[in-house]
From TrEMBL:
Keywords of this entry: Chloroplast, Cytochrome c-type biogenesis, Membrane, Plastid, Thylakoid, Transmembrane, Transmembrane helix
Quaternary state and interactors: May interact with Ccs1.
Organism of this sequence: Bostrychia moritziana (Red alga)
Topological relation to the membrane, as annotated: Multi-pass membrane protein
Classification via PANTHER family: CYTOCHROME B_B6 PROTEIN-RELATED, HEME EXPORTER PROTEIN C
Keyword Chloroplast part of the UniProt annotation: yes
Entry GO CC: chloroplast thylakoid membrane; plasma membrane
Protein known as: Cytochrome c biogenesis protein CcsA
GO biological process terms held by the UniProt record: cytochrome complex assembly
Amino acid sequence: MNINWNLFENYSINAAFAISLLTLIIYWSNVIVNNNQKLYDISKILTKFINILLSIGLTIRWLNNNYFPLSNLYESLIFLTWCLTCTQIFLESKNKSKLIGAIITPTTLLSIAFASICLPNNMKTATPLVPALKSNWLMMHVTVMITSYAILIIGSLLSILFLIISKGQAIDIQGNSYNTQKILLKYKSDKFSNLLNEDLKKRNNIITESDRLNLLQGIDNLSYRIIGLGFPLLTIGIISGAVWANEAWGTYWSWDPKETWALITWIIFAIYLHSRLNKSLQGKQPAMIASLGFIIIWICYLGVNFLGKGLHSYGWLISS
């Protein structure tokens, strides 16, 4: 009996997409409507199941084509989604906040939806590697780069969440983001603050100012640590790419659009980490830089490919 592995691969990816949609609904319902621990546990199990399905799809593609599936945009999107779910699973095992899954799952869903629904069929088809890609550097460079993108995306999402929760409040971050950090939260209007505090005493179903402070401090700590992990990976990815480029094209750096935007991404997160280490920027400013990094990453990863120009092009516009 001959098994159509390509069809099995498609079923795995499509099932991962469907379950991602269901998981998103459960996460958001649990946060907005009903705070239920059982629903949270179910959503975590579904996230693990999504990761398994993506692993199956990538493995089948790897075995069928005899190279690690990172040669085109479709494959890299699936791998990015796999990295996002891996990171989410790890974070949720260490942190019990339901907000982590609620903010990561939409990005997971959108990335797999874009790969499955939006990309034309000819971009999903595996093709023989061009000579420049027939190298062990393919796995080394591209896996590290996409893993760094996934980690930095999650760190940036947490910074965006930090800005959303702290909207309308002045933030003063004191100390570092590990053991001694404290966040001083002050409402911009003392009158508004007094009214809110009176209302909080009457309504037990609204989080107190102390709860909000703890939540903000936890989100800020987690965002800083995640970006602190993703930044070295991005650095290693850029360096390995330069070495590979020298082997393939005889130059370490050619100012290819992808290389240029990777450097811009590196600079943005370097500024963020530098500002946090020496406390040169205060309040919400570092989180704003990290939030900008979220946009820059997607420009680097997808925006450049849409143009279909440069040595890294496997873009949509020139392929369709």
